[in-house]
Fold this sequence. Notes:
Layout: E1 2-7, H1 10-14, H2 20-27, E2 32-37, E3 50-52, E4 60-62, H3 64-77, E5 82-92, H4 95-101, E6 106-111, H5 119-124, E7 128-131, H6 141-152, E8 185-186, E9 189-190, H7 200-218
Parallel strand pairs: 1-2, 1-6, 5-6, 5-7
Antiparallel strand pairs: 3-4, 8-9
Amino acid sequence: MRIDIITVLPELLMSPFEASILKRAQDKGLVSVHLHNLRDYSNNRYKQVDDYQYGGGAGMVMMIEPIDKCISKLQAERAYDEVIYMTPDGTTLNQGIANELSVKENIIVLCGHYKGVDQRVRDQIVTREISIGDFVLSGGELAAAVLCDSVIRLLPGVLNNETSALTDSFQDNLLAPPIYTRPAEYKGWTVPEILTSGNTPKIEEWREEKALERTRERRPDLLEGKE
């Protein structure tokens, strides 16, 4: 998989991809992440990529020309499955979207900034708009990092235990059940006996029951139409 991220602050995105799982995935050759400074595609010596909005109003708008030049250059080099714009009013990211994107080959992620991008970018260039929640950030860089992390960890070979991702919350529209590790007793707080019984079928049954119970309590909306 190849991910190209377009941003006005590439330095803000360097750290997440230089550590932990995201770095390991790149070192293994499972994904390649490339950062593109939008200012390199500006058409003036001041490297300007934003301007005042037509009709007046507070806040600057990212101009269409630098964005189009950058994306057109990338698309001339290879075919892309998606051109994703990170924006608060996009479709809220969920596990299903992460699963879907994890099987793509090439993705462009455009980070919004200021008041956002010229609407023509959204109408003519972007293929998908994604949000990480109903709140506003200073820019789309951190949201892009979240998106990439959620997708890259699903690629075969990224996690040491490839079945781990399959038991995460939301994979089957259920929250994950409670989990425990050593010691079996601490300050009088004990691990449920079933988990130390060695009875795998009963353990799986217990986990399914607890996952359903937790989902009913915390996210009943995930069960709508299923019960």
